[in-house]
Known about the structure:
The chain has two domains: about 1-70, Arc Repressor Mutant, subunit A; about 110-235, 2-Layer Sandwich (Alpha-D-Glucose-1,6-Bisphosphate, Chain A, domain 4), CATH 3.30.530.20. The strands form two sheets. The chain has a seven-stranded antiparallel beta sheet. It is globular. By secondary structure, the protein is of the alpha+beta class. About 35% of the residues lie in helices and about 30% in strands. A hairpin with a 5-residue loop joins strand 6 (about 150-155) and strand 7 (about 160-170). The longest helix is centred in the last third of the chain and has 18 residues, at about 220-235.
Amino acid sequence: MDSIFKALADPARRTLLDALRQRDGQTLQELTELLAMTRFGVMKHLGVLEDAGLVIPLKKGRFKHHYLNAVPLQQTIDRWIEPMRAKPAARAVLDLKQSLERNTPMTKPDFVMQTFIRCTQDALWDALSNPDSMAAYHFACDRATREGNVINFILPDGNTMLSQTVTQETPKTRIETTFEPHFFGPGAPASRMAYQIEPQGEQCKLTIEHYDIPEGQEGVAEGWARLASSLKSWLETGTGLKAAG
């Protein structure tokens, strides 16, 4: 946690984070244009942010793209800020009406998030593919169903919050699905996402990639941060972080 506070202490690094919050996936050249410093100086600041887990670099072709990773910030909020509030803040319910081409290759994601979870690869795979496990840690839904490749997340009032159709699976390693957000209202356009699991000794690195996010749905980033924090808590302690009612 010290590395997070250190990273946030510098105004240049906060500027970089603000820029990625407004438009994720920017290159070093694009970020250098925001600051009155050399390319090397920006690289050093990005290195500090990467070490703190606040920025994720992802190389696609000749270019390296940088993504804001909200998980460490969310964990800091959950630990230090949320308990101090007299009343829990109302948590926005963030969580394919139109068909998606199943064979469309995934190129550059619009959003990337990473977290490290102390668990086995089998346990993480089960958490991401078993509907009973999904319901146990989902921050807003208390039930999940799966029929074939179709997964539905059900809110306490019985309404479906989110539907996903699994389009590709590499057992214990990667899951690609559609992302059909009913919480944005009837006819909300769908997008695509993927979970990537990488064993790291006693931990697993989980990367969440979200592709083709429609205009107006950028708020899903907060939902991913809450989901990742709750998933980590559930796998490591047995208790998920459910949203306040």
